Amino acid sequence: MEQKEMTTILEKAETLIEALPYIQKFNRKIIVVKYGGSAMSNEELQKNVIKDVTLLKLVGFKPIIVHGGGKEISRWVGKVGKEAEFVNGLRVTDAETMEIAEMVLNKVNKSLVSMVQELGVKAVGISGKDGGLLECDKKYTDGKDIGFVGDIKQVNPKVLYDLLEKDFLPIVAPIGLDDKFQTYNINADDAACAIAKAVSAEKLAFLTDIEGLYSDVNDKSTFIPRLTVSKAEELINEGCIGGGMLPKLTNCTDAVREGVGRVHILDGRIPHCLLLEIFTNQGIGTAIVKDEDIDVMETE
Question: How far is CA 28 from CA 40, 118, 167, 233, in A?
Fold first, then answer.
């Protein structure tokens, strides 16, 4: 065997050994993966994400996927001659758009189920309507009625626990019901956070279209690999975080305060970003942790 080949093999072995303590630490722990954005619209990246989550399942994690489908919904809304409208990042959802959204999200859901099962792992696709998983009220933004958009008031995770216990990988579409059984479209970030809190997930991973967080978005040298809840709130209060990242980071800090072990913000456009963040010492995204856990992370 040539030296170059041997070096490559040894590097692979070292990578596996580096992953071992993380596999041991998080064995049988629940991890919620919020999946959407560009990684969902690119077929190759989509397959990579599903491979990552499937591997997590096979090495002992208990993953739950919560997926979006916003770009695909907008495409189908355009097909029927409507124009997508957003207020504060939330889709204005009339009755016709709600029907389209549910159709598209269910289509995406079953596509993900097929991809997981093709890799040899049992998966079940559900929406927040199944088993009363996501109970919601009508959501308003700045007092404005934006249609059938749901604000989660309660998560009933029994259906998720039942699926995990039977060794299934749950894949959740963010659709819920109110107490009159009206269907609502729910922001996928909100759904992922609410579910992660309800099941006391060890990790919540957001696959996004950005590398992670910066203290100054115009300065790449200010990248933040690890961030405490207190520091995150400082950045929010100082106006350092804006745009679509503001509600996402607020959701992240709430999740950590309410029992989620750690939240990871990752660039879903990077192949296998989930594995690189979870199984390597360096990681590639931003991890948000409890204030008291930052010292522990520094020694890992």
Answer: 27, 23, 11, 31
